[in-house]
Design brief:
By secondary structure, the protein is an alpha/beta fold. The chain has a single domain, classed as TIM Barrel (Alpha-Beta Barrel), CATH 3.20.20. Helices cover 35% and strands 21% of the residues. A hairpin with a 2-residue loop joins β14 and β15.
């Protein structure tokens, strides 16, 4: 749809339909990107060594967790802050972080926030399977909910207890599922997750169950590729599941949603493909479905909307987005009607 924004004093004052004035910049105006799954705490370990999911990220002896234990608090905060600035620079207004390291991990992420940081849904997790009620209560009191690794990583009775406490507190519960191996969908759904992450090894029956339960799934194609896994984007979409995109571990892929939607478009071709519009929707409206678990985020564009403004050159801007665009093409992000320009992201 053709249209344009009127900007005055770095604020959106009017959203107009129709042909833009001749002096307007040629750009694609999109709802801001939602990075629906991150682990930005391990950004300081980029680039990660190659290995299996278990060797690189599994708790508690995987490479990621060894690095987190050995790194200084200040180094982790600096890396998280850099990751958040990069997210802003690539048009992201919100992100969902699975924050490791218990209560201290949640507090470190809060300390890393700066003015240009995207808004965060922070999902903490206990330090170990021996988590006490006091520890779980403290974590839930300091963030938006709980985000756990694979079901097989934890005693199921702990997962049930954590999920129940999150629900009782009116907060989010989410879990990785069927990333490297197929996991029991009955157990996964018994935890009443607000959304799932990955589902690479899910069966068609598993996906039907998720669709019937209206549980969104976040996919992370670059992370899956790193581990030699094939994301099942087209199967998820065709199953009628609400699908969102995330960049996953900061040590594996930089949290750049333009690169992630390009990867989603590229890898989906192996299974029939998705359209450029569908790829962009995964990075925008798909993530809003996840965030609507706790926030009333609308998909309508108005003067107070969160938007990304991406410069385009040709007559098919959506095709540019999924093939040749980069974060360098982001001219501005708009949060609540306020315009932020590239020079702000370096603050």
């Amino acid at each position: 749809m053709k249209g344009f924004l009127r900007i005055q004093d770095d604020a959106v004052v009017e959203v107009c339909e129709g042909s833009p004035p001749a002096e307007s910049t040629n750009a694609l105006v999109l709802p801001s990107f939602i990075n629906a799954h991150t682990h930005i705490g391990d950004s300081l370990a980029y680039p990660a060594p190659k290995g299996s999911v278990e060797e690189v990220v599994a708790p508690s002896s995987g490479y990621k967790h060894r690095i987190l234990r050995s790194a200084s608090r200040s180094a982790k905060i600096d890396a998280m802050r850099e990751a958040m600035i990069l997210m802003s620079a690539s048009g992201t207004s919100h992100f969902v972080d699975y924050r490791e390291e218990g209560l201290e991990g949640v507090r470190a992420l809060s300390e890393a926030m700066v003015d240009v940081s995207p808004r965060a849904m922070v999902l903490g997790r206990p330090l170990s399977a021996e988590a006490t009620e006091d520890e779980l209560d403290a974590i839930l009191g300091s963030c938006d909910g709980i985000g756990m690794s694979a079901v097989r990583d934890w005693p199921f009775d702990l997962l049930k207890r954590v999920s129940g406490k999150a629900k009782a507190a009116g907060k989010v519960f989410s879990v990785h599922a069927s990333e490297a191996v197929n996991e029991d969908i009955d157990q996964v759904l018994d935890l009443k997750p607000d959304f799932l992450v990955h589902m690479v090894k899910a069966t068609d029956g598993d996906l039907e169950r998720c669709a019937d339960a209206e549980i969104p799934v976040v996919v992370c194609p670059r992370s899956n590729e790193f581990f030699g896994l094939e994301p099942v984007i087209t199967r998820l979409v065709h199953a009628g599941i609400h699908v969102a995109l995330g960049t996953d571990n900061g040590m594996i892929a930089r949290p750049d949603m333009i690169e992630e939607l390009k990867a989603a478009f590229r890898v989906s071709k192996r299974r029939g493909g998705i359209t450029p519009l569908e790829a962009v929707n995964l990075a925008t409206f798909g993530g809003r479905k996840v965030l609507n678990a706790t926030a009333k985020i609308t998909s309508e564009i108005g003067t107070r909307s969160d938007l990304s403004v991406v410069a385009v050159a040709g007559a098919d801007p959506l095709s540019e987005m999924v093939t040749s665009a980069s974060s360098k093409n982001v001219q501005a992000i708009i949060r609540g009607g306020k315009v932020w320009r590239p020079e702000s992201w370096k603050a």
